[in-house]
């Protein structure tokens, strides 16, 4: 009998200056109860706090699972994830959890892998998440009735759905050495849209983790106008990329105008007239 010692799932964790949160992130990963092996690739981006020390602690405890990449200089979030971590992901499936977020369901990976193993026409599945602040206060709680309903999305309908990065498990099926991954403002929007060319996406009926919103976070620390600007810039960059079909690019065009109208309306509501005009003419 041949025992498979290769990980079925690779967990990618980009980390930078997250000493307050990285332990909880890693504990959420290491509590996973699975019938398969998984590996954890951590891109430690030359943090100036104790993030690296905590990661080394976990590396010593789980040397066969925790496989850090320690940068000698800061390379930035996109290069960290796509240029350095991605080539190290050997699993059939990939899960992602940024260093300030964390998983709360010990069966999260098992549920998602079971679904993808049984449904080969799906490329990615995700779940609901809560939002917490820097001090664990619940900012948004999502109740899921656990009735087993699966919501399906295709390449077009996914433009209307927000997917939390910490919630995804997807097939390791795309050429991530493409330079465009490194240059997209928001890599998650870019990645999920690329993946939608390879199959359907599914939202599974459970809540499996907490997204952390705080002022030092990559997204949470931005102003409303800067968040909107980043999204529009990512969409416009996608229109130029060879990774998307002409049909997708037409839908991206529609999405840009739909999002611009929504963002301008919201900025005006908050009295940010100048920023609303800038967004409109991006």
From TrEMBL:
Residue ranges occupied by any Glycosyltransferase 2-like domain in the UniProt entry: 10-141
Regions crossing the membrane: none
InterPro entries recorded: Glyco_trans_2-like, Nucleotide-diphossugar_trans
SUPFAM superfamilies: Nucleotide-diphospho-sugar transferases
Domain of life: Bacteria
Molecular function GO terms recorded: hexosyltransferase activity
PANTHER family for the chain: GLYCOSYLTRANSFERASE (PTHR22916), UDP-GLCNAC:BETAGAL BETA-1,3-N-ACETYLGLUCOSAMINYLTRANSFERASE-LIKE PROTEIN 1 (PTHR22916:SF3)
Protein name: Glycosyltransferase 2-like domain-containing protein
Lineage: Bacteria, Pseudomonadati, Bacteroidota, Chitinophagia, Chitinophagales
């Amino acid at each position: 009998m041949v025992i498979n010692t290769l990980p079925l799932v690779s967990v990618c964790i980009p980390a930078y200056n997250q000493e307050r949160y990285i332990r909880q992130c890693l504990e959420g990963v290491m509590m996973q109860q699975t019938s398969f092996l998984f590996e954890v690739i951590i891109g430690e981006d030359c943090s100036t706090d104790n993030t690296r020390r905590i990661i080394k602690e976990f590396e010593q405890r789980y040397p066969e699972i925790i496989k850090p990449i320690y940068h000698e200089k800061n390379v930035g979030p996109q290069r960290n994830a796509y240029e350095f971590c991605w080539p190290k992901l050997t699993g059939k499936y990939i899960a992602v959890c940024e260093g300030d977020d964390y998983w709360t369901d010990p069966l999260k990976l098992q549920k998602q892998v079971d679904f993808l193993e049984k449904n080969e026409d799906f490329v990615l599945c995700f779940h609901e998440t809560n939002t917490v602040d820097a001090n664990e206060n619940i900012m948004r709680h999502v109740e899921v009735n656990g009735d087993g309903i699966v919501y399906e999305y295709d390449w077009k309908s996914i433009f209307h759905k927000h997917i939390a990065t910490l919630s995804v498990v997807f097939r390791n099926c795309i050429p991530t050495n493409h330079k465009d991954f490194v240059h997209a403002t928001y890599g998650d929007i870019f990645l999920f849209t690329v993946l939608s060319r390879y199959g359907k996406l599914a939202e599974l009926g459970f809540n499996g983790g907490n997204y952390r919103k705080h002022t030092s976070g990559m997204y949470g620390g931005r102003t409303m106008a800067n968040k909107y600007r980043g999204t529009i810039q990512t969409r416009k960059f996608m229109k130029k990329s060879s990774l998307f079909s002409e049909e997708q690019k037409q839908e991206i065009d529609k999405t840009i105008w739909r999002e611009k109208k929504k963002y301008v309306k919201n900025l005006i509501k908050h009295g940010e007239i100048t920023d609303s005009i800038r967004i409109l003419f991006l």
